[in-house]
Design goal:
Length: 171
């Protein structure tokens, strides 16, 4: 299973920062999830929120969210080779939407991740990442459901669960 540091290791360092990314790597993740937006003046920034108030001392909006379906369509138009994924919490038919968007990944909120949906996604050639899973019990449950990747604010727990799974230890 792929271990993903959600915004780096945001439980331990400020999210979407080099410190957070380095911490996640130190803790043993395979990949780091980060958020990218385009500013009004056409610059690319790494930030999750649509505005600055939660994570900075500044004010103002940041502009376009890259995981929206229209954004994914635009990415596909620009480059057919870029891997994309549809992030969702509640969606009428995320599997169909991801397939129509020619996405490779389906990213579901962990509370809405069900074994049958994971199996259907796999049958359609989609990989499944679930987010944001922060306890060993939830991580173990998601692994049993067959997800391909887990995003966590606590990558150290994720790495420990994966290591325990490999040697038969219980977490």
């Amino acid at each position: 299973m792929i271990k993903v540091g959600h915004r780096g290791a945001r439980a331990y360092e400020p999210e979407n920062t080099l410190l957070s990314f380095k911490k996640a790597i130190e803790l043993g993740v395979d990949a780091v999830e980060l958020d990218v937006r385009r500013t009004k003046d056409n610059e690319i920034v790494v930030i999750h929120d649509a505005d600055l108030k939660r994570t900075t001392n500044g004010e103002g909006l940041v502009i376009i969210v890259s995981f929206l379906e229209d954004a994914l369509k635009r990415v596909r138009e620009l480059d057919a080779q870029i891997e994309t994924g549809l992030i969702y919490a509640k969606h009428k038919n995320p599997l169909r939407a991801a397939f129509e968007l020619k996405a490779q990944w389906l990213l579901s909120f962990y509370r809405f991740t069900h074994t049958a949906d994971v199996e259907k996604a796999h049958a359609k050639g989609l990989k499944v990442l679930t987010w944001t899973v922060n306890t060993s019990e939830e991580m173990t449950e998601m692994a049993k459901k067959g997800v391909d990747a887990i995003a966590s604010d606590k990558p150290d727990i994720l790495v420990a669960v994966e290591a325990g799974k490999g040697n038969g230890a219980k977490t």
